[in-house]
Amino acid sequence: MGKCILVTGGTKGIGRAICLRFAKEGFDIITCARNADDLQTLEKELQAINSDVKALTVQADLSKKEEVMNLAQKANEFSKVDVLVNNTGVFLPGAIHEEPEGNFELMMETNLYSAYYLVRAILPQMMESKSGHVFSMGSIAGTTAYPNGGSYAISKWAMLGMTKCLREEMKPFGIKVTSILPGATFTASWEGVDLPIERFMKAEDVADTVWAAYNLSPASVVEEITIRPQLGDI
């Protein structure tokens, strides 16, 4: 039986790169996005890479708990999930004392709560089989304070804390847990910024890092990876 990966927010940027990377290796893919057209495009890309790959794509807004739970139910019915990548996220810059009302709630619900609910729904199958790997897509904003980080930074600091707790909880079950902390990556979040593309990391480099961390022997786990642009933070 083939293996399966669930990647939230899989149609753009890092999420898309991870889906394509694992499809290349023969993994079945489960993913979600808010835009149905983007999901159809991704399905075609996955088939072009590997026609044997089975894909489940779900239109969902993961800021809403009921849609997270719907995704989890469909995923558990589709396949046992061997790898879970909590990647979905939204970035709205702003200082804590003046960012628009509602930014905090939206980013906490999207960036943190969705991962919390999904982990709780997917882990039972992993715990029963005593195997699996959970990746949390954090950010250097979750380890370094900077102006205008606001609620985004708060959500990513919380994500790192949750992932560290989960790592300790899953040790007895043979489940690996890894935090990926990327710096500035050339994705839609940076659209319109007047900087050369060379200043950014490639989403494919983050995907390759996830693949490499997944491929260690059962005796080892990468707990935390920080990846930055070669020329430093932006």
Automatic annotation (TrEMBL):
Which residue stretches, if any, does this entry annotate as coiled coil? 32-59
Q: Which SUPFAM superfamilies would you find in this protein's record?
A: NAD(P)-binding Rossmann-fold domains
Q: Does the keyword Nucleotide-binding apply?
A: no
CDD domains of this UniProt entry? SDR_c
The record's Pfam families line, in alphabetical order, gives:
adh_short
Question: What keywords does the record list, in alphabetical order?
Answer: Coiled coil, Oxidoreductase
State if Coiled coil is listed as a keyword: yes
- A GO molecular-function annotation: oxidoreductase activity
Task: Return the similarity comment.
Answer: Belongs to the short-chain dehydrogenases/reductases (SDR) family.
**Name of the protein this chain belongs to:** SDR family oxidoreductase
Tell me which species this is from.
Algoriphagus formosus
